[in-house]
Automatic annotation (TrEMBL):
Transmembrane segments: none
Xref: Pfam families: Peptidase_S24
Domain Peptidase S24/S26A/S26B/S26C: 130-196
Gene3D superfamilies: Umud Fragment, subunit A
SUPFAM superfamilies: LexA/Signal peptidase
InterPro entries reported for this sequence: LexA-like, LexA/Signal_pep-like_sf, Peptidase_S24_S26A/B/C
Protein name in UniProt: Repressor protein CI
Amino acid sequence: MRERYLFLPRNTEKPATVLSHEKVWAAIDALASQNGLTPSGLARRAGLDPTAFNPSKRVAGDGRPRWPSTESLAKVLAATGEALNTFAARVETEDAPSGSVPALVPVAALEAASDRNAFDAAGRPSGATWQQFSFPQPGASFALQVSNEDFQPLYRNGDIVVVAPDAPLRTGDRLALKLTSGRLSLYTLQEAGGEELSVRTIGENSHSLRFRHSAIEWTARIIWASQ
């Protein structure tokens, strides 16, 4: 199938900017990430249906590429303060450095990710719980979106934390910790050693907790947060 293109003229002295279907969506994902949002969060901020930018909406039922409408792009630019020429520059390939297109990592609400079916047997995100989040840095495995006020003032409702399960943990690191009971929450590491892990809760009235390693399903260091 021949790929279609959208042309946005910049001025009469330079060639038109050529935006392929793939690059337009990559630019939208990058814009969402820059603003600390998932694609659905960006759509919501722009006053659109939250599913408008979901990966499933980027291809029609017959397999043809589905483009974002001019109206939806205009609303997104207005909601983020992004200029049209800046948005076009995101997808220009002639000046873009290699590897500049952000990767997509799975993202889910913290409570939803606590579900036993949110991860497969290898500990990887799976199922319909997860959407896609554009994140430019290497080493990320998945992201979690805070959906309550329990972690204020550090993390607020709607903030996103990106985690890396393979990253080494050090005292003072913030981490996501999932127990074998299914509970998933965010903490600050105090001490790791022996048969227990000592952490401190995040939020008002913070206090220390200790978990036996045998009761922990996995831990993942928080490497980025949108606050």
